[in-house]
Write a structure and sequence with these properties.
This protein is α/β, with parallel strands linked by helices. The chain folds into 2 domains: 7-339, ANL, N-terminal domain (Rossmann fold, 3-Layer(aba) Sandwich); 343-424, ANL, C-terminal domain (GMP Synthetase, Chain A, domain 3, 2-Layer Sandwich), CATH 3.30.300.30. The chain is built from 12 helices and 20 strands. It has helices spanning 13-16, 20-40, 44-52, 71-80, 115-131, 157-162, 175-188, 197-209, 214-218, 233-243, 353-360, 389-399, and strands spanning 97-101, 109-113, 139-142, 165-168, 192-196, 222-226, 246-252, 260-262, 270-271, 277-282, 295-302, 312-320, 333-339, 344-346, 349-351, 368-371, 373-375, 377-383, 402-408, 423-424. The protein has a 6-stranded mixed β-sheet. α7 (175-188) crosses α8 (197-209) and α11 (353-360) crosses α12. The protein binds zinc ion (ZN). Zinc ion binds next to loops.
Length: 426
């Protein structure tokens, strides 16, 4: 039986339901302290950058005027000053743990975590884990990479402390391995699974191949899911009904320590931990915050942690959520639309793979890729037995651009064992 304490909506209401204006004041004070650290430590990369923009240690300019930094800027800094650059506030000597991103773009990237930041990250994981309805005694399987992968850095300590049984399977690199995972879940009985959409497809096939039904194994489970389309009601309900699960969407940014976002049972956008992170949605060109409801680049500033990120542009395209969430958590929320690098421009319009995916979803969600770059016509390859006219018409109608569909045989497009990439060079 769940106790009253187990029924509470937020893990820590005193930290998560801070009134907006108070949260704003906390953020302002926190960010001013970060600003001073640039000169106090000093963090030479940022000091030189802010000095060059005409700013000094005594007064922090309005956030929108602070130059943004991208991962490419940090990579250049490391190329000039190998091996770790001059941008880090936590160096190898202060590191209690390290993580390395596999990255969907570019080369591997190293992250150093201080001991104090690890403790703060565990607290953020408590908030997120609670939000996704995992409770003491639950059996929680997941298909995340281990080893050096950043999400492995906590070593499951937060789950141990919450009394949740972790079943860390790792990604299903082959169908045989996927079948082993499914058989294990069937044997143990699980309450929650964290996986990506492409992994779920692999598991579904693997289960069938050994005479099991994945929907039966997952029935009643929480599915902590990495699949941007499931932030939207139609696709989410389709997956929830197919497997008998309750979905909580998951996102984050591996290179920013502790930055984990997930939606609550009200699905009003991904909740970011408000106590240490200021989230801005900015025009990718000017760096200024866009109007409510507009798409923009996710720009992060964090305070109160040893790691330093001020106006860090993740180059993810997001839309901020407005209004209060019934769960009571204040702080930023947003919907993730895709990677800025993954956009195609069609007749002057920015189009991301998710736009196409959502348009195709009511037609059964066939696998597809779109051509990157700027074109007059949106070029798609779609897996279909037919000519693909219905897909062409649906996408054209939804996005308001001309569409060309090249039909290809089902099963032709590469399947990812972690996250799919649905855009190719034209
Ligand atoms: Zn909520």
């Amino acid at each position: 039986m769940a106790s009253t304490l187990d029924d509470r909506e937020l893990w820590d209401p005193t930290a998560q339901a801070v009134p907006r204006d108070e949260l704003h004041r906390i953020a302002e004070a926190g960010l001013r302290a970060e600003w001073k650290r640039v000169w106090d430590i000093p963090i030479l990369f940022y000091r030189d950058r802010f000095d060059a923009a005409g700013f000094g240690p005594d007064e922090m300019p309005p956030l929108d005027e602070i130059p943004r930094t991208t991962k490419d800027d940090l990579r250049r800094n490391e190329a000039e000053l190998p091996p770790f650059g001059s941008h880090r506030s936590v160096g190898i000597d202060q590191a209690a743990r390290i993580g390395v991103t596999t990255g969907t773009t570019g080369k591997p990237w190293m992250i150093f975590y201080s001991r104090a930041d690890i403790d703060r990250m565990i607290e953020m994981q408590f908030q997120h884990t609670w939000r996704t309805e995992l409770r003491e005694g639950d059996r929680f399987a997941h298909s995340w990479p281990g080893g050096l992968y950043p999400s492995a850095v906590l070593g499951g300590r937060h789950l141990l402390q919450l009394g949740i049984l972790e079943i860390p399977c790792g990604p299903p690199f082959s169908e045989a391995q996927a079948a082993e995972h499914v058989a294990l879940w069937n044997l143990l009985g699980i309450d929650a699974l964290m996986t990506t959409a492409s992994q779920l497809q692999i598991y579904d096939r693997a289960a069938t191949s050994i005479g099991l039904d994945l929907a039966e194994i997952l029935d009643g489970c929480v599915l902590v899911f990495v699949e941007a389309s499931c932030q939207f009601e139609g696709p989410r309900r389709r997956v929830e009904e197919a497997y008998g699960v309750r979905i909580h969407n998951l996102s984050g940014a591996a290179e920013i320590p502790g930055f984990v976002t997930s939606d609550c049972r009200y699905h009003t956008g991904l909740h970011a931990p408000g106590g240490n992170y200021r989230v801005q949605v900015c025009d990718p060109l000017t760096g200024r915050e866009v109007a409510d409801g507009q798409r923009g680049s996710l720009v992060m500033s964090i305070w109160g942690m040893d790691a330093f990120y001020l106006r860090y542009d993740l180059e993810d395209i997001v839309v901020a959520s407005s209004g209060d969430c019934p769960c009571g958590q204040t702080g930023p929320r947003y919907t993730l639309i895709g990677r800025g690098a993954d956009q195609a421009t069609v007749a002057g319009k920015m189009i991301l793979p998710l736009d196409v995916q959502l348009a195709l979803d009511p037609l059964g969600g066939p696998e597809f890729v779109l051509s990157a770059g700027a074109h007059d016509t949106l070029r798609l390859r779609v897996e279909t037995e037919g000519a693909g006219d219905e897909y062409r018409d649906a996408v054209s109608h939804a996005l308001g651009v001309a569409v060309e569909v090249e039909p290809i045989a089902p099963g032709t497009l590469p399947r990812s064992t972690f996250k799919p990439r649905r855009i190719v060079a034209s």
